[in-house]
């Protein structure tokens, strides 16, 4: 009897997945064929398409144009999206395990509650790479420990946990973004919102955090050597054992007197 019940629910799940895929403008096969025919000089144009729920894992997008595409729930496991145009895309609930977004354009994209790890061990080697990506005004809500944002442009990026929907402030919504061990070396985070983010041991060497919001951010053990904190709001941020050597503009930071554990920071 148990086997029959399980088979029934598996059949229902298959039907639901088939229905979701059939709603997309192209099938995974059609996308694959378009990419095979494309090249770096003549990238595939997939802009504005509904590609929701498709399995596009391990594909090389060769710098494809995906701008304005709906990529909700799309599986990009181990996909090469380097230098692709993903501006204004919806990557909410997408699977980003080991995905490569280096040099990609993700300006004004949303990445809400994606799948970043294959299981509850949260193996940080599975985190996606955004090295050198253009991510101005990107909206992120995720557990994305170990992600690489080295040299990325995150001007006005919003990593705050709150959103306008029912249940805000309860366990039904993401309470904090988790960026433990994430790398932001030389990243541009001007006016970025990192309020309440968990950034334990994050590497922020040389990052430009001018005017950024770090209110109540957990920066325990982070490396901010040479970073620019001019005009940043650090009210309630935890600076326990943070490396602040060579930091620029710390005296201009807002709420510095309300920051936590500043006495344990390295100067």
Neighbour order of strands in the largest sheet: 1-2
> What gap, in angstroms, lies between the N and C termini?
67 Å
Shape: elongated
Class from helix and strand fractions: little secondary structure
Mean pLDDT across the residues is 90
What is the N-to-C succession of helices and strands? Answer: HHEE
The count of DSSP E runs of length 2 or more, i.e. the number of strands, is 2
Query: Mind describing the biggest β-sheet?
Result: 2 strands, parallel
Instruction: Give the strand content.
Output: under 5%
Count of discrete alpha- or pi-helical segments spanning 4 or more residues: 2
Helicity, in percent? 10-25%
Low-confidence blocks of residues = 1-21
Gyration radius over CA? 20 Å
- Report the oligomer: single chain
Description:
The protein is largely without helices or strands. About 10% of the residues lie in helices and about 0% in strands. It is built from two helices and two strands, in the order H-H-E-E. Strands 1-2 form a two-stranded parallel sheet. The model is unreliable at about 1-20 (pLDDT under 50).
Short description:
This protein is mostly loops. The protein is built from two helices and two strands.
Keywords:
267 residues; disordered N terminus; 12% helix; little secondary structure; elongated
Q: What's the topology here?
A:
Layout: H1 2-22, H2 28-37, E1 110-112, E2 139-141
Parallel strand pairs: 1-2
């Amino acid at each position: 009897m148990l086997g029959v019940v399980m088979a029934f629910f598996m059949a229902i799940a298959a039907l639901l997945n088939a229905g979701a895929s059939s709603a997309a403008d192209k099938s995974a096969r059609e996308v694959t064929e378009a990419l095979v025919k494309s090249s770096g000089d003549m990238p595939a144009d997939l802009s504005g398409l509904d590609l929701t729920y498709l399995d596009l894992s391990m594909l090389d997008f060769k710098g494809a144009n995906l701008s304005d595409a709906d990529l909700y729930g799309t599986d990009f496991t181990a996909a090469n999206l380097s230098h692709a145009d993903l501006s204004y895309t919806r990557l909410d609930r997408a699977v980003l395990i080991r995905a490569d977004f280096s040099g990609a354009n993700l300006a004004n994209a949303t990445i809400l509650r994606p799948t970043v790890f294959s299981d509850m061990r949260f193996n940080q080697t599975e985190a996606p790479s955004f090295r050198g990506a253009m991510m101005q005004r990107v909206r992120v809500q995720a557990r994305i420990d170990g992600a690489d944002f080295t040299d990325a442009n995150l001007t006005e990026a919003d990593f705050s946990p709150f959103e306008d929907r029912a249940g805000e402030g309860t366990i039904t919504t993401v309470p904090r973004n988790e960026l433990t061990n994430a790398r932001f070396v030389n990243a541009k985070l001007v006016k970025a919102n990192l309020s309440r983010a968990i950034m334990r041991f994050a590497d922020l060497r040389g990052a430009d955090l001018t005017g950024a919001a770090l209110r109540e951010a957990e920066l325990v053990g982070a490396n901010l050597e040479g970073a620019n904190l001019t005009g940043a709001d650090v009210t309630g941020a935890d600076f326990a054992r943070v490396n602040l050597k060579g930091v620029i503009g710390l005296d201009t930071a807002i709420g510095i007197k309300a920051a936590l554990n500043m006495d344990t920071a390295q100067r």
